[in-house]
Design a protein that fits this description.
373 residues; alpha/beta; 7-stranded parallel sheet; 6-stranded parallel sheet; 16% strand; Glyco_trans_1; Glyco_trans_4-like_N; hexosyltransferase activity; Glycosyltransferase family 1 protein
Amino acid sequence: MAPIRVLHCVAGLGHGGYESLIMNLYRNIDRDKVQFDFVASFPGVYEPEIEALGGHIHRIPFITQKGPFVYTAALDRVLRSALRYPIVHSHMDKFSGLVMKRAAKAGVPVRIAHSHNTKNEGGLAFQLVKDHYGRMVLPWATDLFACSRAAADWMFGAKAAEAHILFNGVQPEDFAPDAGTRRRIRAELGIAESTFAAGHVGRFTEQKNHAFLLEIFAVLHARRPDSVLLLAGDGPLRPKIAETARKLGLESAVRFLGPRQDVPALLSAMDCFVFPSHHEGLPVTLVEAQAAGLPVAASSAITDEVCITPLVRRLGLDVPAGDWAAAALELAAGGFEARRCPADALRGAGYDIADTARWLEDFYLARAAQNEE
């Protein structure tokens, strides 16, 4: 019997939190039973892997590129195509309202809206547009998913309690600290073993607060001149952050690594992870950092649900950069030799992606079967 095809609606297929979750699920789900296809507007590094795994990618212009009418017409063509998807799973936060409505109009019986954030991004006009579409979510979605309780509250309001919480899981053993990998990555980057390496993985957007991260590192670097800051990721604010690093005299100490597909190896090369985000749904990068046994200094704005191990210390964004720098140095004082992968703790807290994939597979199959009866 052919697998059930689930249409995942995303903005793009580049490196990011929800993209990592979807791909982790895709790799672990039984693709003889459930296959993923995608609606995406922006290209990304995952496309070759998706096609190799048997998925189709429907490219349509994003709402902000050619407007909602062009996007809607293109989405309608996909939804009414010969594939006739039984399940649509949207990861576009409040823009999911538009997806849910069009899927309902096209006769898709199972329509999942998935919240991955806790706050709108962009300017006032953009936020008003998102709020408009957000009001369409509850009337048209059949099922609600969120990465955390805070993400459910933000997007689903009075119906937040009805949402299924799908934690952003990983394969813990893939991130286990490895001394050989650490030496190799540091050699590739020209970093001595004695050099202190702070790190961050995330898109260059206002949400991730790279400007404050540079303030923190400026203090850390003054206290420990033999130090570097490794920044993995890309995004619209990268040139601005690079210019700020230059003005602070940190140009040679801040390494802009771009999008990376070897995050587990990078985490082994780091000594501390610094994550001062303004808001998050549930950042998978912090789950990965903990899986790598990497100490984390993180914003107190981040949900408790991601603080799975004692490796995480949360600090307020109103706390001086010097205190953040001191925390990073203190947290890493035990050295690389003391690091272990807390696989059992992650698994016990619900962050093993294999368990999540089995749950989601069963959910898809059960919902599809209900609509065949």
